[in-house]
Amino acid sequence: MQKETVVSCLAIMLLIITSCDKELSVTPPDSPPSEAGIVLSTNPSGYSIFLDDRITGRNTPDSLLYLTSGEHRIEFRHHFYLDTALTVTLDSNKTISLDVDVEGHPQFRGSFYLRSNPPKAEIILDDALTGKNTPDSIPGVYPGIHKITLRKFGYRDYDDYVTMNSNELIEINATLEDTTIWVVYNHSNSAIPSENINCISGKDGWIGSLDNGVIKYDAPDFINYNPNNSILFSYAITDMHFFSNDNIIAASYYGTYIFDVQTGNWSEYTNGITNAVGVLRRYGFTDEVYLCTERGLIMNKGSNLHTEFYHVCTSISISNRGQVAVGTRSSGVFIQETPESNWINYKSGNSQLTPGEISAVSIFKNIYYDTEIYVAIKQGLATNPKGVLHRYYNNEWTEIEYGEHRIYAIDTKSTSTWLGTANGIYKIKYGEIVNHYNSVNSPLPSDLVYDVKDMGSGGLWIATFKGLIIYKYINDTGSFEQ
Using one digit for the tens of pLDDT, what is the confidence trace for 375-384? Predict the structure, then answer.
């Protein structure tokens, strides 16, 4: 019985094996797929390649291999150029090359038409002269991003980057900014490191900002010094002045520093003196520097510090003859004729000065006239302070009506005095307001003016929280003042 079972199993296995052998295919294998291909290149390169309306993920120059023989639709697509499509017929086991020159076809180029106000501005394309002036056209421009510059003497360059596509006409209408009288420097038209300008040194383009340290304007470039690249400890500069050797001194709430123009290095000027809001060198005395601080007026002479008085100082001015005027928070204004003379104190109790904090002061001695002093007084709430302006001349104090806006700065040269206020700038001659400019009637970008400095033939430099402005002002006869 056991032997019969074993024989039956062997028979079944033999039957299965025999059956499998009979089902095996004896058909010859298929031929290998065709190896038709195409090598693709374009001018310009970088076209996306589509095959039979499907994206391949490849860009020219590249190749498509292992394609079936017969007709195929090849399409090229580019950001700036028109799409290009064509049909090719491929033979088995053959690879062909296809080179498409798009730039050589005029249809794939664009044109500019440029106008300017005023007209006759020089047209510059991609920093290259075109030999044309506005209004005019520039045909045959290759697609892509192009730089357009319009240049006219007495006006700021108009610069723009424009994207040109195939077979496109782009019209540009530009209004040029007149720089014959007003020049504005801000983030939109220059590389100035800060728009929040607080003070002007009065020499060689040195200015101080409230948020990015010291700035040197060396046309057309701006050089920036702050805690990131120098020993300056503060980003906020409160005042700046210059020495007879052109070295620059900068005051801040966290220290006072001097810049050596020969070595190009900063060093600490006065160790331990902070909260300086004003700094000036006495004319004719190279080593006498006055620091206006909350601890009083400090004079540094030959590295010897001396406190002149202990009233809280708010502003300081030194005349062309070496006279010093110092404004205080609550004790009026102090005047000193020479280093050997005593300080004379004018305040509401002994003069016609209005009570309040001195916000700005200016003193000037004209060779033909008596000493002229202007004192600005801040009154009212801190959120909306008012201003009062007094003039001292011929031993008499008088009040000048100008509009009651707070005065931040006063600068006097010869017979002209300029005010920087919360409502623009004012010009005073012989104690009377003769001009007033603000954001409504001039290119001033802001009514808030922190500082003004009359640079003579260099114009009036104006510090605002919306940039630096240079006003090439004109005199009463209509000509530029020198």
Answer: 999 987 767 7
Q: Which residue bears the tokens 């540009």?
A: 172
What span, in angstroms and rounded, lies between the C-alpha atoms of 209 and 198?
A: 5
* Each residue's pLDDT tens digit, 191-222: 999 999 999 998 879 999 999 999 999 888 99
What distance in Å separates the CA atoms of residue 371 and residue 433, rounded to the nearest whole number?
19
Amino acid (1-letter code) at residue 85: A
- Rounded Cα gap, residues 37 and 65, in angstroms: 4
Please tell me the distance from the alpha carbon of residue 124 to that of residue 97, in angstroms, as a whole number.
39
- Per DSSP bridges, beta strands 36-43 and 95-101 are parallel
Quote the distance between the C-alpha of residue 119 and its chain's center.
27
Nearest CA to 143 among 117, 170, 108? 108
User: What is the C-alpha separation between 136 and 149, in angstroms, rounded?
Assistant: 13
| Contact by Cβ (8 Å): 209, 222 | no
Cβ–Cβ < 8 Å for 98, 39: yes
Q: Report the chain's terminal Cα–Cα distance, integer Å.
A: 136
- Tokens for 36? 């038709």
Q: Which domains does the chain have, with CATH numbers?
A: 36-101 (2.60.40.10), 109-175 (2.60.40.1120), 182-471 (2.130.10.10)
Question: Residue 3: helix, strand or coil by DSSP?
Answer: helix
Task: Give the tens place of pLDDT for each residue, 13-56.
Answer: 433 444 444 455 555 565 555 678 899 998 888 889 999 989 89
Residue among 235, 280, 232 nearest 256 (CA): 232
Eight-state DSSP code of residue 25 = -
